[in-house]
Specification:
232 residues, alpha+beta, BirA Bifunctional Protein, domain 2, SH3 type barrels, 2 domains, 5-stranded antiparallel sheet, globular, binds biotin
Length: 232
């Protein structure tokens, strides 16, 4: 393919490793698979935990020069769900959900060297639980919908379309992905709470990927927040 593939048995975080390399001047397109992460990171400063052998954790570094970066995380989410399974949904901005539980998370960061900006797209997918995975919060597993797809096959399905999606985003921004996001939108027309206390009805996303929220004070556009669905 048009990127280097590297598999590391253990690393703190595949995103952190690529960010370090980019800052050190290495910005070739690279797909880095971590068999084990000792300090996996999630969005909003959270941790991402996975057990060896039960998940796929990797990051893709790709130099990108879009006119507008907004909506990139949603476009990546659309690409990932499209390459995996018809039953998957996206919880804004880009959590991948299956039947009411989280299946995968996406962490996008950017780093620069010189005048080049490189996107680092990190993806963690629960593939299949191992015996003894004692999980208090039960996530979803890809095995539930794709029993024959292991971590390696999931990576093969996701990687090439993801590169194409990033290139499409570079040219056209989020707009070409908006309709597909709408079809996968888990929050649409549901009552939601934002981490900052705002409550409202989710009404889809705008052309920049912002969450449209109908609140008592009118329609608001949310660009960054933790959103939870309010129990009915
Ligand atoms: C989230 O749900 O908040 C995002 C989770 C992203 C996890 C992946 S696993 C591979 C890559 N390396 C990391 O440290 N995080 C991402």
């Amino acid at each position: 393919p048009d990127f280097t593939v590297e598999v590391l048995p253990q690393i703190d975080s595949s995103n952190s490793e690529l960010m370090r390399r980019i800052r050190a001047g290495q910005c070739e397109p690279t797909l880095l698979v971590a068999e084990q992460q000792t300090a996996g990171r999630g969005r909003l400063g959270r941790d991402w935990h996975s057990q060896v052998g039960d998940s796929l954790t990797f990051s893709l570094a790709l130099p990108l020069a879009p006119a507008d970066w907004s909506g990139l995380s949603l476009a990546v989410g659309v690409s990932v769900v499209d390459s995996l399974h018809a039953d998957l949904q996206l919880k804004w901005p880009n959590d991948v959900w299956l039947q009411g539980r989280k299946l995968a998370g996406i962490l996008i960061e950017t780093a620069s060297t010189g005048d080049q900006r490189v996107a680092v797209v990190g993806i963690g997918i629960n593939i299949a639980p191992r015996a003894g995975d004692g999980l208090s919060t039960a996530p979803a597993w890809l095995q539930e919908v794709l029993p024959d797809v292991d971590a390696g096959q999931a990576l093969l399905r996701i990687a090439a379309p993801l590169v194409q999606a990033l290139k499409a985003f570079e040219i056209g921004g989020f707009a070409p992905f908006q309709a597909q996001f709408d079809q996968r939108d888990l929050l649409r027309d549901r009552a939601v709470n934002l981490s900052n206390g705002t409550v409202g009805m989710a009404r889809g996303v705008d052309a920049q990927g912002g969450l449209l929220l109908q609140t008592p004070n009118g329609l608001q556009t949310v660009t960054s927040a933790e959103v939870s669905v309010r129990p009915a």
